[in-house]
Every structure is written in C-alpha cells, then in structure tokens.
Amino acid sequence: MAEKGVSDIKQFARVGTTLYKMVRQPSINGEFIERRVVWNVETFRQDYGNDKLSEIPKYDGFCTVPNHISYQSVIDKFLNLYEPIGHTPVQGECPLILSLFKHIFGKQYELGLDYVQLLYTQPVQKLPILLLTSQERNTGKSTFLNFLKVLFQGNVTFNTNEDFRSQFNSDWAGKLIIAVDEVLLDRREDSERLKNLSTALSYKIEAKGKDRYEVAFFAKFILSSNNEHLPVVIDSGEIRYWVRQVPALQTDDPNILPKLKAEIPHFLHFLLHRKLSTEQYGRMWFSPQQIRTAALQRIIRSNRCRMEVELTDVLMDIMDSMGVNSVSFILKDLIFLLEYVRVRVDTVQIRKVLQEIWKLKPVSNSLTYTRYEGNYNAPERYSECKGVGRYYTVTREMLTNSDELMND
Fold it and tell me: How far apart, in whole angstroms, are the C-alpha atoms of residue 352 and residue 168?
C-alpha cells in the first residue's frame, strides 16, 4: 500500500454516517469541476489504513447558506453545500461586461445592474423571473447566461424544460440561479409552479430513492427563448416576470466569454461600491411599474383566450363609436353584440372572462343602465337605449391597461 499524505485525507469528509470524497472532474473546456461523491469505507482502509479513519473531518450534516462576501464552508458542525465563488474583487475597469448589460437591459440598464448586484450582495433576496426573448439569432442571450455561470460558478445550473417538470429536484433546489435556455413552458401547471417557486421561502427536495425533506429556497429563475409570444403562460396582472426583448448584436465575438471572465474581479469591485438605483418596493424588490415592458405585454396578449380578445374588441369599438369611456351590460347584451359582429357565442367562456379574468361583479340590485345595440342597416354602428338588470361595467382605462404596449 502506497503511503498517502495528510493532503489526501483532506479530500474526505464524514457527514453524518456517510463518507464522501471531493474529486476534481475534468471538463471539455480544460477546467475542473469539484464534485462530492460517496466513498466506500473499506476502499478507504485499503488505500490509507485503519489508523487514518480517525483523521477524517466529521460533520453532523449538510446546510445551504449562500454568501459571496463572507463565505463559510462550515457552519456549526454542518458542511455548507453552497459553493464559494473563486473571484476576488479588484479595482479596475470592466467595459465589456457593462457593454453586455447595456445590450441586454437597454433603457433598464441600471435595473439590470441592481439585479446582479442583489444576486451578489443579497443572495437570499427574492427577485423577479427574468425572461430574455428574441426571434432573432445572435442576440447575446446565451452569452449572458453563460457569463452568470462563470460569475457565480457552481451556484448556477442549467435546466431543460424536462428537468423543470421532473419531480426530482435535488440537483437544482439549492442553487442561486436556475437558468433555462430555449424555455418552452407553455402549460399552465408549468407557469403556476414557476410563479410559486419564485416567491417560495421553502421547498421540499426530492431525490431518487431518498426521503423528501424541506429546505430554504432562494433560487432565482432566468429564462431565455426565441419565442416572443408564448414561451410561458403569463396572465394579465402578473407582476412576477421581467421580460426583456433583446436586439441582435452588431458584431459577433466567438471568444467573448474568456474576455468577460477576465473582467469579473473588476466587476465585483464595481458592484461592491455601487449604490443601488432602486429601493426595495416589495418581496421581489422591484415595483411592477419598474420592470413592466412591451415584451411582457406582448406575451400577456398572446396568452389571452380568444373570447377575451373578442370582448375587448367589441367593447372598445362601442366606446370609440359612441364617444364614451365606459360600457354597462348584462350577459344577454354581450351575446347580442357578439352575434352582431359575427363572433361565435360561448356563454361559459364569456362568464369566465368577466368573473375570473376581469374580476368583475354585477351591481347588487337590478338598476336602470344605458345599454347598446348593434345597428344592422343604419349609418351608425350602435344605438343606445335603457335597460334594467344587475349589470356589469367596464371602462376604457381597464381595457387599455390590459392591452397596452409600453415602450421598452
């Protein structure tokens, strides 16, 4: 048996009753990835002898405590699964990184810097789901995700759509960033899970063949997609998404990632000394108004059911034709109006739009209101008359806010 040194013993750790060894796995880019693998005690004895077992560091269990500035590998006899980042802040310039942020975030550049500054200095702070979209190629979306991987290293994981849907989550539940490139989570259950996780304080980890257990959840989701209209299901009024439509790059540098990596120490120094441009508004830091974009509104519009679109069109047409800013109606009125514009009527869908999507409630008692009818053979498209009933009312402002496209 060959003599092994103390440095070799430090590769091992006993956590609870299980022996682990830290190994350095080569990757195709010439670097190494550190992994913790379960080791056989008998194999250790064969390699090192019985007397070395007592020298192995012992811990009561694992914990996951993110910290990039004052990192601790061991916390009260628990081994920290969160990984340190191997960058030391150094004063200097980082023009290439800042140029990438200006390209990705455009007029929201300062907010983009706030976002990554919070990731670095306050890793447990909840942040919006960041979604980068573009139908064009060569936009820098993947470069940005890869840069974050280089920046935060082992605390960033790339998932596929299938990984996200899987019940087994032990490989990503303790990460800082969960990135999904070419995301297509177009089922409502996917969207609900994504939204719930983005604000969850805890989550149950599940691995094959092991019991589930609950941990604190602090991961942020960053997604990219070439689908500008339906990458995920986003409903009107949703405030947990920050969607950026990214333009194409003017030039293409295939070696940009190593250049970005070289500037990271300067970038971290910049973040440590930079004053945030925003103050905390809510649990996801930014206010809905700050991160609202045309790209978000485009996805919301694409996700609307056809009946909502048809109702919006006919009600806005009445307001424009009659010079009013609100329309009152009972369900029967809408049926006649939709038939007037030759739209197939679905009473169940109409009720769903009014009550579940628009959150409208009729007046408590039957009252007189102004109702509108379609004029089939008259110059004016609509005429008004009096009706009585428990009517609903929609305003131009409500319909405009649900359909408007804001400038990025």
Answer: 35
| Average pLDDT per consecutive 10 residues, the chain (408 residues; last block may be shorter) | 59 90 83 84 87 89 92 92 93 97 96 98 96 89 94 90 70 85 76 83 69 79 88 82 92 90 97 96 94 89 78 91 93 90 82 86 93 83 92 89 48
The CB density around residue 397, as the number of other CB atoms within 10 Å, is 10
The SS3 call for residue 55 is helix
Are the beta carbons of 232 and 164 closer than 8 angstroms?
Answer: no
Q: Which long-range contacts does 367-375 make (Cβ < 8 Å, 24+ apart)? A: 367/391, 369/328, 369/329, 369/393, 370/328, 371/328, 371/329, 371/330, 371/333, 372/318, 372/322, 372/327, 372/329, 372/333, 372/337, 373/336, 373/337, 373/340, 374/336, 374/337, 374/340, 374/341
| CB contact at 8 A, 47 and 118 | no
Cβ neighbours of residue 177 closer than 8 Å, sequence gap 6 or more? 119, 148, 152, 155, 156, 157, 219, 220, 221, 222
pTM, to two decimals: 0.77
Amino acid, res. 126: K
- Cα separations (Å) of 375 from 296, 315, 340, 341, 378? 37, 15, 8, 11, 5
